[in-house]
Amino acid sequence: MTRMIRHPLAIAFCISNVLMAKTHTPVPEGMLNPKLITQLREGYEMDEADQARFNAISNTDINKLALNREIIRGEDGHFSHKIASKGITDQKSSGRCWMFAGFNVMRPKIIHELGLDEFEFSSAYLQFWDKMEKSNRYLEAVIEMRDGDPLDREWQLVNEWMVGDGGWWNYVTGLIEKYGVVPVSTMPETHSSENTRVMNVVLERLLRSRAIGILQAHAKGASVAKLRKTKEKTLAEVYRFLCLNLGEPPTKFEWRYEATKSSEDKEDAKKTGNEKPQVKQERLTSLKSYTPKGFYEEFVGVDLSKFVCLYHDASKPTGKHYRFKRTHNIVGDEDMDFVNIEMEAMKEIAVKSVLANQPMWFAVNMGIDQSREHGLMEHELFDYETLFDIEMPLSKADRTRLYAGSSNHAMVLRGVDIQNGKPRKWLVENSWGKDKGNKGTWTLYNKWFEEHVYTIIVDRKHVPAKTLKVFKEEADELPPWYPGSMGIPDSR
Fold first, then answer.
1. CATH number for 218
2. pTM (two decimals)
3. How many domains does the chain have?
4. Does 486 reside within a domain?
5. Distance between CA atoms of 172 and 129, rounded to whole angstroms?
6. What is the pLDDT of residues 83-98, one digit of tens each?
7. Known catalytic residue at 309
8. DSSP 66-116
9. Which of 14, 97, 243, 309 is catalytic?
């Protein structure tokens, strides 16, 4: 083979041509190019104020620096009306806020009517059936979309949200209507119920493995009936898996309770000459057998169909009926639907509910301007604009448009402070335990309500007839990828 020897001048000529070609290559529009970088460098010089900011920000938690002390100083902890309740629940490291909030709406009634010091429903019980139903929902979606494009956006979301912890109010009502409820003593929390990450990962792996089997069987010509038989076998595996993690849910259970009451009230004390009522006495009821549905009917008995969902989406027309596609956990149930209303109307309805002593489930964007340390929610609680000397205007509608504004946490409104006929602030019961907020509660100021509250669930008797009438109109369907539509994943 003849060896080619290139002359150094020829090599230099080639290199020069390559460099010239690169030099004349058009710079893509919008590129962060060297010229722009130089311009940015030359346009900024750290002055004394920014030097002070850098020293502070680089050594301290930003939120501690940005915390608005005027808001902290102005909070007195008083409300003109509070709904009595006892105890604070704790969802621990799980995304069950929507479920805990649902139970926290019902707890005051059973505590008051039975004269209990405290009471808690079993979230593990309802969680078990939520996971079962979501597993069935996922496998049904696989069968339904078996011929679909694997790059389809809806298929992607079905596989992302398959059995996650998140949910909506209608998930609570659907589960209770189908399975009832039990006290926490009947089916206590487990490590997996309180720490769901690994349990969910393994369950998702199991379901995806069986989903592939369903798709492979379909490719070989299996009928839908045969695919559902495969699904049923998978659900048997899911049931066993959940029993190992959460315990097996009871079909019947025995329960009794201890009611606390004073042997004399104040009037009786006056009549008998005692200065104070006698000490409290405990009254233990006899042991009785219940079914989960029977327990709900006897001790709660709230008609869940009376409640409606009202929404404030600043990017959508108000006075219209909407429905989020694929927002149900039980196959056969309706998707979550709502009427979009003005914020002032939402606040008026919320006030009516609280003043009627009806705790109210509501959903918010918990990721903005709230302090777990101080138990406060107020617009610009953290004054980043002053700290960084940057203006950052962003409306509620803008946040929705840019996927920065939607519900990610559910709680309960349990009080309101009315000043001059208008709500000034609200008392919020959370489900993050007593060590967060103000012993488990938050103060939510009116401006924060306007900016970051999206959903309230309220008894229809507090809703104007013209709004209820809108629910009878055909709903505009919003896709599963619409901001907030796939349920509340929880911000914890």
1. 3.90.70.10
2. 0.90
3. 1
4. no
5. 11
6. 999 999 999 999 999 9
7. no
8. HB-HHHHHH-----SEE-------B--BSS-HHHHHHHHHHHHHHHHHHT-
9. 97
